[in-house]
Write a structure and sequence with these properties.
The structure holds two protein chains of two kinds. Chain A is of the alpha/beta class. Chain A is built from 33 helices and 25 strands. In chain A, the strands form six sheets. In chain A, strands 1, 4, 7, 8, 11, 12, 13, 14, 18 and 19 form a ten-stranded mixed beta sheet that branches. Chain A is globular, with a radius of gyration of 27 Å. In chain B, α1 (about 25-40) runs parallel beside α2 (about 55-70). Classes of the chains: A alpha/beta, B alpha/beta. At the A-B interface, β10 of A face α2 and α3 of B.
Chain lengths: ~850, ~110
């Protein structure tokens, strides 16, 4: 164990022999009685399970204490609904948060085991695709740390995001059956199962009083079984819940059919029901028209709402107080059915009048928008929607009728506006239900996730809604938890920071500002550099083992790790690499500095472009890495199977953070924050949270390049983008573009990349590759020159870390709590006051 | 299925004799309750044994109600578990049935 690790863990009680002994006893007990194993027969994975279960005992105690406290105080509860929670590994987080890491390390050492090795046995809980799911996971950490009474609601996918393998440069997807070996963290709660009807039809009739009564008939029923994951907060007494629902059939199988001899038919319905929670859809954008996805979304919403209403009725009185005691935040539109579901519960089941139910629904719900691309906004064909959720469609029609009445009164005669604002899109058959419109109409708060994104939501995405109810729109810039992304991921830097400025930063990230006064200190710089160098050595070993490539830890580690997507522009990065390579081998122009270009990220299985980019990176890497003329200057590495636990190893080793999305496309980004927090300097466009990082660290401490949002808007409006002119005028552009059609990078698969010139020379290239190419190359040149001056570079890196205070998810969550949910003054949480 | 029927004056009290009333036995229930519906206009269905009902089971009860309504009779339900009551509410069927906590309350409602 590194001796300096102890310095940041002062929250721990003294590592007394008694405590360590009781931990050892607890681990042994779980090995024997929970796992049914003799101690000497334990595999490392089983040892992990025994350790995790012993940690879980402590979490359960604190969770029960937390629940008891909430029951007594009856505080307002926050419910965070998200179709994804990208948790990753949990053991390390819990050990840090509970302040018992050293004790467990010692206990395991006494067994002859190594804590880090045991931690590595944990499967990532990959219940998410990327930013949206990871944001939800960071929020859970912050809720618990701040002591906010909160519960996350999601789906207990049996298969998480696919595992990525690479075969000849092509991505191969392998199923991620993360529950195959079971997880020690989940507590199943079959006694709290809930029933979820789906499908069927509406029978129009009257009730006993002669009032219209639409009855939902011929539905099928799913059963949702909650599985609780315990979420610890750093140094706090709070352990809260992430409640994940698994779908089960209402019957094991139809005994009648079974008795008639058709076993397979008998289990058919059971299998179909359980399919609902089988699989996480592997797209980071929108899943269009998939019936199973719509059922998944309703399954999540129905289970969550039933649980939330049950708890409210258990703790409180009439529904008039519902919004005073319950807040629901919708993480994007996937749970937007909550608007119709809460209305259905209040009107159909609790028999409230429509107006009262609507007031309660709006006051309870808040909606977070995560995307600007109109084509990425979730819509469902009305016939499909009606087949799956006939009663909810009726309710949505009524919500829409009332909305459009209001629009007509406010803007008389503006038929076009009515068409734009309708929740039901009528332009082309079949009609579509617009989920973002439903979420906006049904929520009292609509927030974007960075300053520029929120402005674009107001002005480009939903200007009509902004004009109708401007008071609902607000910004909540995303954040990340520093406990996971610095304390856990980068213990060397965490120790250095704590020993220099103390530990305040762990619960108040603004404390990192105190590093500014050390940024020019040669001794501190040397220590800082030493930590980075050590992290780079570790990553170099991972690259050697996974990508079969030897890289130099003294080279500049230029890192782009994120989903592979056109708007994130990995292609622009590759074009720069090719330019640098061809300048070296054809012009004899040496790069400014030896670099290792490091990529990692998954492509959605059905996204051809992204999969081609992965192949391109590998092929370019294969040519350059095998060219002796370039060997001391350029290396290109693609690290397979990007996931949270791998991010925790790559990010601390990065020198340069690639954040080069087309301006106006990245809602916020959080990878940019994680990398800067770990001392990487950003090269990026003025997009998403990059703009706020610039504001916090100062323009001298990052490399900004490329078109701005307003410039792109003008070019689009005036159709003035002419990529052919860049190609004709700039020989570097021409050489790079031509290299794709020359088969230089695909000698064995001719024309494999011939689509790229056609794409980037198209005036309709949505991502303006050629316009941004030269500014990007110049910024890279500047970055390389700066890196050669180690003192200057390290100072920049330190100032990046120092400027990251704003980007803690503690700050983000505290803003949601104060300004959207109306939660204040939870004991010990100064951020909330 | 064997449906036990108590006759209390002009009121028939039938007990649904299963834990689950669903697609696998709703047809059987309809067949076996048919003579009771033919012979009576005032029926109390005691659901106290029932733990789960699906849309077929609910449909069977709606069918009972309609047959009785067609001859100016009525059906009252009693003894619902919380879960079964929840399902009635979920699909708004609690609004078309007269629902009571106990058998005695349901009989009393018929008598007054």
């Amino acid at each position: 164990m590194p001796s300096n690790t102890k310095r940041v863990e002062k929250v721990e009680k003294p590592a007394t022999a008694d405590l360590i002994s009781s931990i050892q006893e607890s681990i042994r007990r779980h090995a024997r009685y929970s796992l049914g194993k003799l101690w000497n027969d334990l595999s490392r994975r089983e040892l992990f399970n025994a350790v995790a279960l012993s940690v879980r005992d402590r979490l359960v105690d604190q969770m029960l204490e937390t629940e008891e406290r909430y029951r007594k105080d009856a505080p307002k509860r926050i419910n965070y609904l998200s179709i994804e929670f990208l948790i990753g590994q949990s053991l390390g987080n819990h050990l840090h948060n509970l302040g018992i890491r050293d004790l467990y390390r010692q206990a395991l050492s006494n067994f002859g085991a190594d804590l880090e090795a045991v931690e590595e046995c944990e499967e990532d809980a990959a219940l998410g695709n990327g930013g949206l799911g990871r944001l939800a996971a960071c929020f859970l950490d912050s809720f618990a740390t701040l002591g906010i009474p909160a519960c996350g609601y999601g789906i207990n996918y049996e298969y998480g995001l696919f595992k990525q393998e690479i075969d000849d440069g092509y991505q191969i997807e392998k199923a991620d059956n993360w529950l195959a070996q079971s997880t020690p963290w989940e507590i199943p709660r079959p006694d709290e199962a809930c029933l979820v009807p789906v499908y069927g039809r509406i029978e129009h009739g009257v009730d006993r009083k002669g009032v219209y009564n639409p009855m939902w008939m011929d539905w099928k029923v799913l059963i949702g079984i909650p599985h609780d994951m315990l979420i610890s907060g750093y140094g706090s007494r709070t352990v809260s819940l992430l409640r994940l629902y698994a779908a089960r059939s209402s019957r094991d199988f139809d005994m009648q059919i079974f008795n008639d001899g058709d076993y397979f038919k008998a289990v058919e319905q059971k299998i179909a029901s359980e399919t609902i929670s089988k699989l996480l859809y592997p797209s980071d954008a929108i899943v269009v028209g998939k019936e199973l996805r719509l059922v998944q979304e309703y399954f999540l919403v129905a289970c969550a709402m039933r649980d939330i209403v049950r708890r409210f009725e258990q703790d409180h009185g009439g529904f008039q107080d519902f919004s005073a005691k319950v807040a629901l935040q919708l993480n994007d539109t996937h749970p937007a059915l909550a608007v119709a579901e809460l209305m259905r519960i209040l009107v159909d089941e609790k028999e409230l009048e429509w107006e009262e139910a609507w007031t309660i629904t709006q006051a309870t719900l808040g909606y977070t928008n995560h995307t600007l691309a109109p084509e990425a906004l979730e819509k469902w064909p009305v016939p499909l929607f009606e087949s799956v959720l006939p009663r909810h469609l009726q309710i949505i029609y009524e919500i829409n009728r009332r909305l459009l009445d209001r629009v007509s009164v406010t803007y008389p005669g503006d038929v076009e506006r009515i068409r734009r604002m309708s929740i039901i899109e009528e332009s082309a058959p079949p009609k579509q239900v617009r989920m973002a419109s439903l979420a906006m109409v049904g929520s009292h708060s609509i927030n974007g996730v960075s300053g520029i994104h929120t402005e674009l939501v107001k002005t480009s995405l939903a200007p009509d809604f902004f004009q109708l109810f401007p008071e609902r729109f607000n910004n909540k810039t995303n954040g990340i938890t520093q406990r996971q992304w610095l304390l856990k991921a980068n213990p060397g830097l965490a120790n250095l920071i704590s020993s220099t400025i103390g530990e305040r930063w762990l619960t108040d990230l603004y404390g990192l500002r105190d590093l500014e006064s050390h940024a020019a200190n040669a001794g501190f710089q040397a220590e800082f550099h030493k930590v980075k160098r050590s992290n780079k050595e570790k990553l170099a070993r991972i690259i050697r083992d996974t990508a079969r490539l030897k890289v130099d830890p003294d080279s500049l580690f230029d890192v782009q790790v994120k989903r592979i997507h056109a708007y994130k522009r990995q292609l622009l990065n590759v074009m720069h690499i090719i330019d640098e390579y061809l300048s070296l081998v054809e012009d004899g122009r040496q790069p400014t500095v030896p670099r290792t270009y490091i990529f990692a990220g998954k492509a959605a299985p059905g996204y051809w472009f992204a999969k081609q980019i992965i192949k391109l990176i590998h092929n370019v890497g294969r040519v350059i890495n095998n060219d002796s003329r370039a060997s001391q200057w350029i290396k290109v590495a693609f690290v397979p199977d990007y996931r949270v636990s791998l991010a925790e190893k790559i990010i601390p080793a990065a020198d340069l953070s690639e954040q080069i999305s087309t301006a106006g496309t990245e809602a916020s980004g959080t990878g940019n924050m994680k990398l800067a927090l770990n001392g990487a300097v950003t090269i990026g466009t003025l997009d998403g949270a990059n703009i706020e990082i610039l504001e916090e660290v100062g323009e001298d401490n990052l490399f900004i390049c490329g078109l701005k949002v307003a410039e792109i808007r003008v070019m689009r409006e005036q159709k003035s983008y002419r990529p052919g002119e860049y190609y004709a005028r700039n020989p570097h552009v021409k050489r790079v573009v031509d290299s794709f059609s020359s088969n230089l990078f695909c000698p064995h698969e001719p024309d494999l990349f011939a689509w790229i010139p056609a794409s980037v020379l198209d005036a309709n290239d949505e991502h303006f590759h050629l316009a941004d190419f030269t500014p990007y190359v110049e910024a890279q040149e500047k970055a390389g020159n700066t890196f050669r001056d180690r003192g200057r570079w390290v100072r920049m890196a330190i100032l990046n870390v120092a400027g990251m205070g704003k980007f803690s998810s503690d700050r983000t969550v505290a803003e949601y709590a104060r300004e959207i949910w109306g939660v204040r003054g939870v004991k010990g949480s100064t951020l909330l006051d | 299925m064997e449906i036990a029927v108590d006759q209390i004056g002009s009121i028939a009290v039938a007990t649904v004799p299963v834990d689950e009333l669903d697609a696998s036995n709703a047809g059987e229930f309809k067949r076996d309750i048919a003579p009771v519906l033919q012979a009576n206009t005032r029926l109390v269905l005691d659901l106290s044994r029932l733990r789960f009902v699906d849309s077929s089971g609910l449909g069977a009860m709606v069918s009972c109600l309609r047959q009785l309504s067609a001859k100016s009779g009525d059906l009252k339900l009693c003894g619902m578990s919380k879960q079964v009551r929840g399902l009635f509410e979920l699909v708004r069927m609690h609004r078309i049935f007269d629902i009571y906590g106990t058998k005695e309350e349901a009989i009393h409602a018929f008598e007054h």
